[in-house]
C-alpha cells in the first residue's frame, strides 16, 4: 500500500526591528498558554506559501509576503509535519484574532519564553533572525 505524505502545518517567523512575533495558544489544553509561531494547516490543493498567507490573514489580520523556510521541518506526528517560513514583509498591524495574546520578543526575551515543544526546535534558527 502506498504510504500517504504527511499533511503540512506552516508557521510564520515575522521579524520587525530585531523582534520576532509570538502568539499564545488558547488550545488544546496541553498547548494552551504556550507561545508559537502563528500559522496552520495547508488545505488540499493549496501551496504552503498560499496557506501561510491565508492563515496569517485569518489569525493576525495582516497581509504577508512569505520568504524562505526557517530551520528544518519538524514531525508533529506520523501524519503531520510542521514547517516555518520567514515573513519578510507584511502590511497592517498584527492583532490576536484567534490567539490569547501576541508578543514581540528580542533575542534576550526569546531565551526565556515557554514555546510549544515543536517550535522550541527552531530556537537557534529564530535567534539567528534577530
Ligand atoms: N503547531 C505547532 N507549532 C506551530 C503551529 C502549529 O506545534 N507554530 C501544531 C499544533 C497542532 C497543529 O500544529 O498540533 C495544528 O495547529 P493548529 O491547531 O493551530 O491548526
From TrEMBL:
Protein family according to the UniProt entry: Belongs to the Nudix hydrolase family.
Co-factor requirement: Mg(2+)
Record key words, sorted: DNA damage, DNA repair, DNA replication, Hydrolase, Magnesium, Metal-binding, Mutator protein
Molecular function via GO: 8-oxo-7,8-dihydrodeoxyguanosine triphosphate pyrophosphatase activity
Organism: Rhodococcoides corynebacterioides
Gene3D superfamilies: Nucleoside Triphosphate Pyrophosphohydrolase
InterPro entries per record: MutT-like, Nudix_hydrolase, NUDIX_hydrolase-like_dom_sf, NUDIX_hydrolase_CS, NUDIX_hydrolase_dom
Entry protein name: 8-oxo-dGTP diphosphatase
Entry EC number(s): 3.6.1.55
Catalytic activity: 8-oxo-dGTP + H2O = 8-oxo-dGMP + diphosphate + H(+)
First-level EC class: hydrolase
Ranges where the Nudix hydrolase domain occurs: 5-128
Amino acid at each position: 500500500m502506498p504510504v500517504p505524505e504527511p499533511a503540512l502545518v506552516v508557521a510564520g517567523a515575522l521579524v520587525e526591528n530585531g523582534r520576532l512575533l509570538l502568539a499564545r495558544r488558547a488550545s488544546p489544553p496541553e498547548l494552551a498558554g504556550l507561545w508559537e509561531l502563528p500559522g496552520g494547516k495547508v488545505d488540499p490543493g493549496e501551496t504552503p506559501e498560499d496557506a501561510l498567507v491565508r492563515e496569517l490573514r485569518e489569525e493576525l489580520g495582516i497581509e504577508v509576503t512569505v520568504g524562505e523556510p526557517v530551520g528544518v521541518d519538524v514531525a508533529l506526528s506520523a501524519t503531520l509535519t510542521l514547517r516555518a517560513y520567514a515573513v519578510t514583509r507584511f502590511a497592517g498591524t498584527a492583532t490576536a484574532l484567534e490567539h490569547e495574546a501576541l508578543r514581540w520578543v528580542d533575542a534576550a526575551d526569546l531565551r526565556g519564553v515557554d514555546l510549544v515543544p515543536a517550535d522550541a526546535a527552531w530556537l537557534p534558527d529564530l535567534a539567528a533572525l534577530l
